[in-house]
């Protein structure tokens, strides 16, 4: 059931909610691009890409502040209730997760710099493949979460949430990386950086799931966060 | 603030409403095309007022349609809805104010403490003492402040002597939060007070005759935000002793003061639920559209 933000008797309220939605999507796209570029930077030693990512980090931060400001204004002016209130609360939560996603992009970029400092090699390239593999999965999930956020579609949000996280892939990669370390202890430093990147990708997947949970709340009013814990 | 934590609110009557529903209600899922049965629990344990299948007709116009709703003890119930939806008409049924309208007829059952208020044996004068009313526009009598309060207890024989009457006047003004402001000018005309003070004078006048229920028909619509805040705070205090039913066009006021909110639409009671639920995830589409300002 797609969510509906428009239809107010006061049309300006429609415009304000649409603007808020667009600003959130703009931030989501920027963050996605940051993560994608950060992962690309492992495949080639491209200092320009890394520099661009670090420079655009401030754009993510200023978007966060701009959206927070829009939310404050809408709350003050319109006194929203029910689905409007849930939408605004949801966007506010989404922005926090997006900002953290941006931080993950920056973190990955820093690891990319360290990995390249380690120099090329067959083993290194095998280990980098782990990032490519898990990175593709994380990006696919995040892309879908942003799409769910764009159309506020509760059915697609629930479908995304029903899919398992990246735990399995992460653990499989960890096993393969361990074998590289056992083969040659000199791979240790390199492998640790790769593992930290994989951990970042796991967190990206978790944030993407959070986005889908917020959409469920915004559209239906059901708070399904921590539902696994509730059942225990 | 949750209902349970609200000052002076016992929470006893709405325990049944707090039970988790069998299936999770999804906000706004009942459409306008759904049948007109009320969404939510209309009954409470040990109600002060129990309304069952109440209908009101103005001549051939069916203004209130099959409404069932309980008002709990020490509970504030807000009734909201667009103009002409029947909320004020329904409110006026609760102390038979509609009797004064020639072509108005009321069917169904309304019980106050288990007694049918429309029974032929019921005298409306003591009924209206038990179910007091405060109107949109403050309407003090053209008498002194003291006489405004003393009038009701005197005609209902609630005071044995002058000292007792004075005690009632003082207590009522204190309960209405007006005593400190006007204790030195009790002989001044009631009409000389500010709008907010006049409205509190009317509330004091209503509580002077020991009501069980206070009906309020848009009591703050003619008041500024400060006077409104004082009245709302007063309502919170008063619900320790009385049940309060308020009709309001201010959604924020309903959200601020009431424990339960009832949404009316075209004479039907569409949805009734804990106020927190109504204003965060209402079940019926009509409720959602109204409170979010999506109604034409």
UniProtKB/TrEMBL annotation, chain A:
Domain of life of the source: Bacteria
Keywords, in A-Z order: Coiled coil, Cytoplasm, Phosphate transport, Transport
Subcellular locations according to the entry: Cytoplasm
GO BP term, pick one: phosphate ion transport
Coiled coil stretches, renumbered: 25-73
Residues covered by the PhoU domain: 24-108, 132-215
Main location: cytoplasm
GO CC term (a single one): cytoplasm
Free-text function comment from the UniProt entry: Plays a role in the regulation of phosphate uptake.
PANTHER family hit by this protein: PHOSPHATE-SPECIFIC TRANSPORT SYSTEM ACCESSORY PROTEIN PHOU
Oligomeric and partner information: Homodimer.
Family the UniProt entry places it in: Belongs to the PhoU family.
Stated name of the protein: Phosphate-specific transport system accessory protein PhoU
From TrEMBL, chain B:
PROSITE patterns in UniProt: ABC_TRANSPORTER_1, ABC_TRANSPORTER_2
GO biological process: phosphate ion transmembrane transport
Sorted UniProt keywords: ATP-binding, Cell membrane, Membrane, Nucleotide-binding, Phosphate transport, Transport
GO terms assigned for molecular function: ATP binding; ATP hydrolysis activity; phosphate transmembrane transporter activity
Gene Ontology CC: one annotated term: membrane
Organism annotation: Nitrosomonas marina
UniProt-recorded name of the protein: Phosphate ABC transporter ATP-binding protein, PhoT family
Domain ABC transporter: 49-291
């Amino acid at each position: 059931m797609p969510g509906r933000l428009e239809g107010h008797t006061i049309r300006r309220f429609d415009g304000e909610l649409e603007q808020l939605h667009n600003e959130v999507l703009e931030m989501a796209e920027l963050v996605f691009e940051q993560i994608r570029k950060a992962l690309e930077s492992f495949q080639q030693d491209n200092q320009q890409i890394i520099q661009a990512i670090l420079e655009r980090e401030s754009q993510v931060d200023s978007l966060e502040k701009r959206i927070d400001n829009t939310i404050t204004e809408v709350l003050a002016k319109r006194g929203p209730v029910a689905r409007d209130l849930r939408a605004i609360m949801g966007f506010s939560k989404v922005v926090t997760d997006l900002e953290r996603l941006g931080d993950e992009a920056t973190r990955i970029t820093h690891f990319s710099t360290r990995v390249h400092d380690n120099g090329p090699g067959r083993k290194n390239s095998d280990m980098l493949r782990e990032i490519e593999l898990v990175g593709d999965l994380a990006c696919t999930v995040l892309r879908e979460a942003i799409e769910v956020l764009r159309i506020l579609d509760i059915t697609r949000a629930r479908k995304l949430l029903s899919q398992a996280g990246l735990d399995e892939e992460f653990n499989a990669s960890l096993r393969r990386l361990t074998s590289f370390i056992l083969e040659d202890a000199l791979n240790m430093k390199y492998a640790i950086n790769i593992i930290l990147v994989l951990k970042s990708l796991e967190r990206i997947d978790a944030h993407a799931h959070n986005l889908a949970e917020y959409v469920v709340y915004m559209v239906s009013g059901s708070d399904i966060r921590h539902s696994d814990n509730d059942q225990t | 603030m949750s209902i349970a934590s609200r000052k002076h609110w016992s929470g006893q009557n709405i325990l049944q409403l707090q039970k988790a529903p069998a299936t999770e209600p999804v906000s706004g899922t009942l459409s306008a095309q759904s049948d007109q049965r009320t969404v939510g629990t209309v009954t409470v344990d040990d109600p002060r007022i129990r309304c069952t299948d109440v209908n009101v007709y103005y001549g051939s116009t069916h203004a209130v349609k099959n409404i069932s709703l309980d008002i709990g003890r020490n509970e504030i119930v807000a009734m909201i809805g667009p103009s002409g939806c029947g909320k004020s008409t329904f409110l006026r049924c609760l102390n038979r104010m509609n009797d004064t309208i020639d072509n108005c007829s009321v069917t169904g059952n309304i019980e106050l403490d288990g007694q049918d208020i429309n029974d032929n044996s019921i005298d409306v004068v003591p009924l209206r003492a038990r179910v007091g009313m405060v109107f949109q526009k403050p309407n003090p009598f053209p008498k002194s402040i003291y006489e405004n309060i003393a009038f009701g207890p005197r005609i209902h024989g609630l005071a044995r002597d002058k000292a007792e009457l004075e005690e009632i006047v003082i207590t009522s003004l204190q309960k209405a939060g007006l005593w400190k402001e006007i204790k030195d000018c009790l002989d001044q005309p009631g009409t000389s007070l500010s709008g907010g003070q006049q409205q509190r004078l009317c509330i004091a006048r209503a509580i002077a005759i020991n009501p069980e229920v206070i009906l309020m028909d848009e009591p703050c619509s003619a008041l500024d935000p400060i006077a409104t805040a004082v009245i709302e705070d007063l309502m919170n205090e008063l619900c320790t002793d009385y049940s309060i039913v308020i009709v309001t066009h201010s959604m924020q006021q309903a959200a601020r003061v009431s424990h339960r909110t009832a949404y009316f639409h075209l004479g039907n009671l569409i949805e009734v639920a804990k106020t927190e639920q109504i204003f965060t995830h209402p079940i019926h589409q009509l409720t959602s559209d109204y409170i979010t300002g999506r109604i034409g």
